[in-house]
Each structure stands twice: as C-alpha cells, then as structure tokens.
Amino acid sequence: MVSRKWSVLVFLGVSQFMVFLDVSIVNVALPSIEEALDIREGNLPYVVTAYGTLLGGCLLLGSRLADRFGRRTVLQCGLALFGLASLIAGLAGDQVVLFVSRGVQGVGAALMAPSALAILTLTYREGDDRNKALGVWGGLTGLASVAGVVLGGVVTDLLDWRWVFFVNVPVTVLALVVAPRVLPESHGRASSFDLVGSVMLTGGLLAVISALARAIEAGWGDQLVQVAGIVGVVVLVAFVGVETRVRDPLIPFEVFASRALRTANIVTVLLLGVVVTLFFFVSLFLQQVLELSPLATGFAYLPLALTVVLGAAIASGLTGRVSAKFVLLVGFASILVGTVLLRLAPPESSYWIDMLPAFVLLGTGMGIAFVCLQIAAQSDVSEERAGVAAGVIGTSQELGGSLGVAVAATIAFSSIPVVDDTDTVAVRIARTEVFHQAFVVAAVYIVVAAVVAVWQMPALTPRAQDDGVSA
Fold first, then answer.
1. CA distance linking residue 258 with residue 264, whole number of Å
2. Are 298 and 152 in contact (CB under 8 A)?
3. DSSP 457
4. Dihedral of CA 318/324/329/331: which sign?
5. How far is CA 306 from CA 239, 300, 458, in A?
6. Furthest-apart CA pair in the chain: how many Å?
C-alpha cells in the first residue's frame, strides 16, 4: 500500500511539475523567441500570460469535468492536449500560432492539475501523511517554477528555443502510457458545467491583459486600450454576479467563508505576481544587460532552484512545530530582501556579488511560502470541499502570475528611455532602468502580500494544522 501511494505521488508530482515548468521554461528563451518570430517587446509577455490566463480561467472547469468523467480520464485528456499544443508551439512560424498554442497548452494543463490534486487528496487522507504529501506538492510548485528557467537556458543554448516546447512531447506520451497502470479512477459529485462562467472569467482577464499590453506602446489614452480595459472589467464584474445566481457556479463563493482559504488566495495572487515578474525580467536582465548566454543564464538560476528545495524542507519541518503564519512571514521577508538586492544591481553587475545573494534569498523564501500557503489553504476546509479549495488556490496561482507580469511589464516598458542604439553603454543603462522598475513593482507586491497575511490570516498553530481548523 505504501509503495502504491508513493508511486501515485511520484506520477502526480511529475504532472504538477510539468504544469508549472511551462510557466517559467520559456523565460530564458524569450530573447531568442523575440528575434526568431520578430515579436514586438510589448507583445512578449503574451508568451507567458496566454498560458497562465487560460490555465487559471479553465482550472475549475477542469475540476468539474474530472468529477463527472473521472479524474484519471480527464488527466489523460489534459496530457494529450498539452503534448499536442507543445508540439505546435515548437513548430510555430509566427507569433499568432505561438500565442494560440500556448493558450491551448494552458487548457490542457487546466485539465491535468485539478485531476491530479483530487487523486492526491483521495490517496492521502487527513493528517501527517497528507501534510507531507501537500508539502511535496507545494515544494514542486516552487521548484518547477525555478527549474524551468534552468532547463530553458540549457535547452535553448544547446539545441534551440523550439525545444523548450518539444521537450514536453515525449514526457506526455510516456505519462499517457503509464497512467492506467499507476493511477486509480475516481469520480466526484456530478454537477453541471458552468461553461459560461469559465468563458467570462477567461475572456475578461484576456481583455484586461490585452489592454495592459497595448498600453505599453499606445498609452492609456488609446481608444482600444480603454475599450478593452472597460470590457474586461465589466465582464469580470458580471462574472461575479452570474456566479452568485447559477445552480453550480464555477467558483462557489461560500468556500471563502474560510478566512484562511480566503486570505491564502489573495496572498497567492500577489506571490505569483512576484515570482513570474521576477523570472521574466531577471532572465532579460541577465542576457540583455550582463550579456550572458542562454546556457549561462540557465545555470545562473541553479542556486535559486536548490534553495527553493531548501526553503520547502524548512517550511515542512517548522510548520509542525510553530505557527505556519510566522513561517510564511519569514519567507516573505527573504523574498523582499532578495528583490531589493535585484533593484540595487547596477548595469555592470557581478553575478557573484550582486545576483547570487539575491537568488539564494529569493529561492529560500519562495520554497517556504509555497508550502505554507498550500497548508493554509487546506487548514479549515472540510474534506468534501478540499477539491474546490485546491482548484481555487490553483486558479489564484495562475491568474496572479499572468496579471502580475502584465502590470509590471506595462509599468516598466512604458518608461523606456530614448537612447542612441549604437551606444552600447547607454543601451545597457536604459535597459537596467526599465528592469529596475519591474523589480520595484515586484517588491510592492510582496509588501502588500505580507500586510494582508499579518492582517487577515489566522495564526495556524501546529494544533490547528493537525486538527484541520483555523486558530
């Protein structure tokens, strides 16, 4: 039984790893993709946000489909769609095909992630075993986000940027073959599909993100920027109204009666805004300012990847003995100091002096925060609501990353100084100023996240974590 449970955890961990790997694996390849497909700088964030927005917008719909048709079945469908979209993204000859295929990848991931987590929570019942399994799950989320940039650098430099997508294909094929041998099939409560809600949530967010992207070049006075922004906000407000009236809403708002879950979701949106923003802009900083190759950039992230594992181990060990809220704030402090160090990095930065200390602090803080938030989100949720809670926190992760980098890119790229392109020193200084703006935005995100956690999150004492109730 123990070996069966671990084989399930390993399989589901690999699936989770792939989902979050694809959020970050493209980051180091962005300059190569930009040049190969002639993508304007203002459109470059779509390579990241198209995936995250469709994943976040369809995640809860994927959960409903998994309950109705079987978690393993829907997971396999997600794997197949994810692999096919990865193949098309790797073959893309223009930016439109790449953006659309990235969106389809997100839909495939949205079928995979909730199915995998539902199987995990059924395999590991409440108590120590589940906390450890969720600790592994949360740690993999952080590790995948960082490992993606390392792997992206290696693959881009040694092969080609297209292989950051092709690498998914053999993994998904193998997973499709292995899944029936490892995973049990299970069903949840049959309910209707809130397809309208899913379309409204995803469409509203895409409209807002499109407005932010266009504002980089056209400015806030542009008519299309204003129309897209207003439409997006109106659709999102209407989405909330629709969700309170339909029989089986995409997001059952009563789940937010849990203060721990409600706060964990707000904080998660902000944390992923930090993570995705930093990976996006640090990758550009390392290549366009420090002039590192994609391979060197990938390996530059290695200390960050290793310290994510360290942070997750620290959090898993401490949350059984002290308040998870306290541990979370320690993680946030580490992320904030690391982000400030990035903001202070000059154009002539030394990796060892200016970047490495920041990476160690960021990785440790991220590992701690991911595990603590995963535990907090499930701390006072009933077993029958565990799947919904997991889906909501997953939605917050993806949408937080997409919106976070979109807002940061709008602010940073809108302030690009005009310099002589032939003056390489002036160009490096100008780029540094732009990237510093993004790091300031990331620092604001983490400060707000810490304030919300202090103000709203229950203490989550060790006894509350074990008993499954908030303190």
1. 10
2. yes
3. S
4. positive
5. 40, 11, 30
6. 67
